[in-house]
Amino acid sequence: MTPRLLVVQHEDTCPPGLLGAWLAEADVALEVVRAHRGDPLPESLGQQDGLVVLGGEMGALDDDVAPWLPRVRRLVASTVEAGRPFLGVCLGHQLAAAGLGGTVTRNPAGHSQGVTPFRHTGQGADDPLLSSVAPDSPVVQWNNDIVVDLPPGAESLATSPDGSVQAARFGPLAWGVQCHPEATPAIFRGWTVEKPSAARLAEVGIDIHAAARVVAERAREMEAAWAPFGHRFAAVVREHAHS
Asked: pTM to 2 decimals?
């Protein structure tokens, strides 16, 4: 039987992207809930075999902007506490931290600027999922907020150049990445050069056109570096799927 993942999407411009393609290659089916479009969110996973929560522009506690977030935080917490496979990407990583008792705030170092090296901690180098990514592999990183206090029992697996948490493990089968391995050049353009409000980033010294060019130039390198990560997470899901 094909394993099924529940995927929570928060914006049209933040789809599963490459991650969805890698999971499909490994014969894992995705059931995408577009929460921002009013798709109903379950209280628990039920018969799905794991949970993926994607990114979005809103903050992890912006319940007034995105009223479905409390339900997502509860769903993440119940998934992790039940020992089911979970992966959070950017906002999804932050929602996991907040829902499990950690702290998320605006990054005092400012907005991240595009392609960034992925740098394992000692724990990350030996992690069953993140060890699939070679040290210093490039990856898209595009966020304002960061996890400043991990939940009890969680551990940092990677550190961004500014010293903030780049990836974490929240439980035996639960991970979060602050970066965006799923982002293609087209997805990144949707966050930058094709998004009128992104022009304000020039005020803090970020050239969105230059960032988009670098993402396009390094797209193949990033996809090759992170495909093993997607396939490894699929293997985790398959190993722990309902029989």
From this structure: 0.97
